[in-house]
């Protein structure tokens, strides 16, 4: 049987387009462009926590790359390089080849060079670290939201949560919507072009991985502000079409994670600019509320009543112990 | 109980000295210096494979940082930044605090900024990614060894293997040598100053993590050369003092891993320069053989006879399936 070095050589090696030295030495070598900041992020995906252990390996590979690349989008950075460290309970060449293919497909879709990694024996675990470039002083952080900003979200967050609920037998979906929801769960699309387009415009941004409300709470906390969501403009249309239940659609939108859409704040006077950007990118951009000068997270109902809402982020440790 | 975000905030946050934005956003932001190449390496450490699950968490933290930083030393790069992604089977604040302290201690010893990471639930797994800077064209790769080079190794590789054997009850050690051998196993010392000093001098270099012969075989393969080791000059002194058995000392030296000493090749005419460097760094540097113009790995015995030797690298997958 092949040893780990053969595995690395066979499945991890591949062409790179902007890397001086890739897989095979003690380290990869690359040259960030002058006057750029380097954005760096790591995400670890664990079998049974982030994906089903028996999920298609190609989808596991795609998702591992995608959730990392999404962190670059969320900073307004251009993703450029990625590493993958991998623990495997056993050597299954078919599995490794398919996983590596999915990982590489996602990298290639975003012009990201896969520059190295590690393989070892252990419970199934994939850890990627991604590096992106962003011109100095334009990275979009979480701490810049200000009173007078609108709050926006891209796409239809909540579809991945409906897909997960369907797989777990907890949710019924209209037949035509099963595949689209599972696709959002398994093959998230990092919003790189949107993130880059929002440089200099968005005051704060992050990707929705743990649930819209929970993630918005991070922006509010870091920015020292509050927010009022408007119930009547929440993007429930697709979710309602998929599950036909208002309460479920609401829960999926506000509490579901794993869609990797971008949540961002933009000064109100640039509302037209964001609407035009959505048309240009052919990506629905939904205004969902506004930043307040008082703290807290609030919902303005259709009847005008405002009530405090609890952040319902998905916490990987909730329920443990 | 705290959620994962609280954990990150409490234990992973800390001062940085050369980072624009550290833990807490979608990505960290840093500025590599102009005209530098960035060296990047990831290593994943798994409980039961790379360390005992019940090992002291501070030592696990130190080792995770050290083995990554060692990859920078092996390229002649100055380590500068590191991320840590962590899967934990349960939330044990005492464990996390001690592990983080050990990780940070190692980072601080090498002026490395801990800039971010990830925490999730899962079987115990630590994955670090380290970034270092090296002036363009001077990184020491594995592929430059040439006929006429001497082969060198730093320190006393094999001590970590003796320490591991002792813990596993397979090896008896002389009393005074137990602690030093365990220390090499648990608290490896990345040879950063040596790696940087060898820029422009060493033709090929790597760190010994999988065993001296196995790792030398990687250099030979990448460089397209062979090597002759000389039995009479192998650095067995400390190992013999520790275990008193020649055969065991030989096996530990040639097949043991986990010492993270540097293995490097230098043109023969610079032998005096390396000897002076060892004195300057107060680090024993041992010449162990020479690069050949024919392929293969050979041992010249004391009686002058040369025989082929098999690379005995430690393979994380060996024995599986």
Helicity of chain A, in percent?
Answer: 25-40%
Biggest interface, chains and residues, is:
A-B, 77 and 77 residues
Q: How far is the N terminus from the C terminus of chain A?
A: 41 Å
Strands of the widest sheet of chain A, in order across it, are 7-9-6-10-8-11-12
Characterization of this structure:
Two copies of one chain form a homodimer. By secondary structure, chain A is an alpha+beta fold. Chain A has ten helices and twelve strands. In chain A, the strands form two sheets. Chain A has a seven-stranded mixed β-sheet with strand order 7-9-6-10-8-11-12, sandwiched between helices. The longest helix of chain A is centred in the N-terminal third of the chain and has 17 residues. Chain A starts with a helix and ends in a 13-residue tail after the last strand. At the A-B interface, helix 1, strand 1, strand 2, strand 3 and strand 4 of A face helix 1, strand 1, strand 2, strand 3 and strand 4 of B. Strand 2 of chain A pairs antiparallel with strand 1 of chain B.
Distinctive features:
homodimer; alpha+beta; seven-stranded mixed β-sheet; four-stranded mixed β-sheet; 12 strands
């Amino acid at each position: 049987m092949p040893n780990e070095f053969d595995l690395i050589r066979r499945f991890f090696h591949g062409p790179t387009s902007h890397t001086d030295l890739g897989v095979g030495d003690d380290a990869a070598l690359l040259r960030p462009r002058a006057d750029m900041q380097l954005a760096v992020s790591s995400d670890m995906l664990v079998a049974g926590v982030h994906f089903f252990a028996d999920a298609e390996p190609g989808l596991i590979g795609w998702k591992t790359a995608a959730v990392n690349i999404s962190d670059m989008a969320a900073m307004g950075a251009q993703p450029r390089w990625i590493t993958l460290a991998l623990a495997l309970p056993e050597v299954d060449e078919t599995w490794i080849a398919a996983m590596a293919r999915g990982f590489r497909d996602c990298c290639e879709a975003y012009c990201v060079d896969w520059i190295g990694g590690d393989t070892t024996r252990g419970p199934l675990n994939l850890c990627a670290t991604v590096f992106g470039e962003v011109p100095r002083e334009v990275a979009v952080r979480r701490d810049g939201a200000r009173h007078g900003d609108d709050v926006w979200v891209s796409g239809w967050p909540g579809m991945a949560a409906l897909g997960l609920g369907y797989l777990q037998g907890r949710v019924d979906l209209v037949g035509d919507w099963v595949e689209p929801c599972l696709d959002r769960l398994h093959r998230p699309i990092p919003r790189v072009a949107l993130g880059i387009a929002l440089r200099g415009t968005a005051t704060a941004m992050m990707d929705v991985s743990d649930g819209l409300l929970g993630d918005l709470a991070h922006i509010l906390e870091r920015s020292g502000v509050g927010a009022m969501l408007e119930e009547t403009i929440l993007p429930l249309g697709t979710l309602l079409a998929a599950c036909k239940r208002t309460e479920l659609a609401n829960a999926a939108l506000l509490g579901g994670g794993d869609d990797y859409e971008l949540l961002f704040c933009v000064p109100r006077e640039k509302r037209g600019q964001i609407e035009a950007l959505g048309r240009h990118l052919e990506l629905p951009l939904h205004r969902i509320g506004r930043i307040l000068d008082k703290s807290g997270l609030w919902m303005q109902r259709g009847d005008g009543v405002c009530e405090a809402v609890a952040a319902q982020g998905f916490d990987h440790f909730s329920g443990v112990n």
